[in-house]
Design the sequence.
């Protein structure tokens, strides 16, 4: 994984989501016409090197990004000990929908088309929120996602959806194959050969970023 781009266009934002306020990093490159909201999962955060790398590549492609924590600092401490909040998919989806509504009204992003980049359990939250905001969410990318945790809404998702899974992530790969059969929107499953769940292998995350940038450019910025 290599570095990409600078972060001079990134700034901290605080977004109300029900009873809590969530912190995120909003990056808006010049002439950006679309924004991608990241939904982290499985204990990850907006500081995740993997998500920040993908965000930098999307910024270089002219896409704005919002990396935001779906849990507060206090909740992250609890989750680190118990692991249960990261699997509270309905709660994560509600917060993602609230952040979506904030982006729709925010001066820097309200004129932009919007997409979701979901990882692990965050991908399930993204699919649920997209089903609830069919007129707003224009594209979804799932990296090593758990769409099975959103199985009940898959037929209602309207946004074109790209499922990216490592070829050696065998259990998650089968779950994504099953989800692909349930999706009624345009959808595609891409397998990155030799990659495991977190895509640490040389060139694997670069391929994830390239595929994601192409998908969002096609459906959001085209």
Sequence:
């Amino acid at each position: 994984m290599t570095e990409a781009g600078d972060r001079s266009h990134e700034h901290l934002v605080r977004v109300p989501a029900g009873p809590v306020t969530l912190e995120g990093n909003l990056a808006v490159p010049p002439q950006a016409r679309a924004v991608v909201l990241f939904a982290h999962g499985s204990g990850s955060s907006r500081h995740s090197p993997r998500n920040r790398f993908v965000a930098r590549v999307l910024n270089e492609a002219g896409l704005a990004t919002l990396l935001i924590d779906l849990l507060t600092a206090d909740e992250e401490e609890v989750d680190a000990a118990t692991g249960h909040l990261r699997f509270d998919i309905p709660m994560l989806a509600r917060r993602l929908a609230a952040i979506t509504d904030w982006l729709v009204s925010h001066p820097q992003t309200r004129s932009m088309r919007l997409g979701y980049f979901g990882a692990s359990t965050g991908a399930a939250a993204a699919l649920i929120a997209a089903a609830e905001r069919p007129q707003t969410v224009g594209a979804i990318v799932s990296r090593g996602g758990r769409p099975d945790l959103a199985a009940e809404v898959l037929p209602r998702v309207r946004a074109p959806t790209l499922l990216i899974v490592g070829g050696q992530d065998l259990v998650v790969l089968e779950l994504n194959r099953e989800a692909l059969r349930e999706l009624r929107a345009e959808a595609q499953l891409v397998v990155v050969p030799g990659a495991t769940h977190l895509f640490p292998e040389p060139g694997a995350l670069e391929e994830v970023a390239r595929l994601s940038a192409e998908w969002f450019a096609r459906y959001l910025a085209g």
In short: The longest strand covers residues 10-17. The domain at 10-219 is CATH 3.40.50.1820 (Rossmann fold).
